[in-house]
Amino acid sequence: xxxxxxxxxxxxxxxxxxxxxxxxxxxxxxxxxxxxxxxxxxxxxxxxxxxxxxxxxxxxxxxxxxxxxxxxxxxxxxxxxxxxxxxxxxxxxxxxxxxxxxxxxxxxxxxxxxxxxxxxxxxxxxxxxxxxxxxxxxxxxxxxxxxxxxxxxxxxxxxxxxxxxxxxxxxxxxxxxxxxxxxxxxxxxxxxxxxxxxxxxxxxxxxxxxxxxxxxxxxxxxxxxxxxxxxxxxxxx
Length: 237
What we know:
The protein is mainly β and 237 residues long.
């Protein structure tokens, strides 16, 4: 039997100007669909922290969980000229008095998973918000909630807006709240297990100055955690 060539994935990649390297033999895996550089693109270079756990996560209950990749995340292609926009930028939050840590830790480029690198927000729906300083067109967002152990953070929603109050022109680039329990609309994205690689989210070319990331507890406890959030793109003149 011929292997499936995932036409919807290939069509999406073509629309984004990405070329995929496909093996001729059967047994394609997600890692086989690795984007290769196309004119006008570059590989996104992400500095990763040290892994803190290994092995297969257990006792994580989710009806909407994505299948983990068999190995490291493939290289991700972004428009040429994409840079890290969020380093050192101001962070605000729905929880102005974090239980542990300070909001500045989210953009300090420290992604290690030790206790001194983690911000803990109160239980329930909470968000952190990054001010990029000027409007930008986004290519990717990478978030590290926690990676001392494997867990899933609930109702992860990532939005972009031009105004700090997120009243108009809000663009949602990621939403895995499939039952709309957080009241931001039902999302179709998958929940994911936290690892040292962080979660890479497609910026979808959204334009805005502010990036807001929501969560609503996790599979280990009711708290919300962040280690780092990186926003990549191009500043708009």
